[in-house]
Amino acid sequence: MSTQRTGLSPVLSVFYTKLPVKQHKFLIIVCAFLFWSCPGWSIAAADGDSILAAAESTFKAMKDGNYAGIWSLLSEKSRSLIADDVLSAVNKKGARYDKNAVMSDFAGGGPLAASYWRGYMESFDPVLVLEESTWEMGKIEKGKAEILIRYKKAEKPAVLKMFQENGRWKTGLEETFRSSRK
What we know:
Blueprint: H1 3-6, H2 10-17, H3 21-37, H4 39-64, H5 67-73, H6 76-92, H7 99-107, H8 111-123, H9 126-131, E1 133-141, E2 144-151, E3 158-165, E4 168-172, H10 173-181
Antiparallel strand pairs: 1-2, 2-3, 3-4
């Protein structure tokens, strides 16, 4: 049997054609059993799509200036760290807010959120991530995952951290980029 007829690579074709038909069937059954007996493989593939979609939604919300949308897509830790930073900055200027007020402002896309995200976008362009970078799933573990985002021909990708909270994947913006901003 030639490689053209099987559609297999030359290496696989040699291996595959030397097996008797009974062994072909056995090999298929073993592979199917391994796939179905290891639910992590199929779950990881399904989760990969939802993880990528959640991250993409975050960067699209940034691109569109949807401040409340960005906030809803961030991890709890990212929201808490951002709220702490904003609270510290506004209170230094003499305004008196508490953390709940800051978080409510961000959830509604209010003036604090608008000011924060406009400043954030001065040093970060989501279009570069959405349109000029390649995305690849990294590790997927229980409740957390990584997406490798490589801008054009960068030597190393950015490793975007994602977290599952209340059954939904959230973007760990601060968990990913905080050290590089400070």
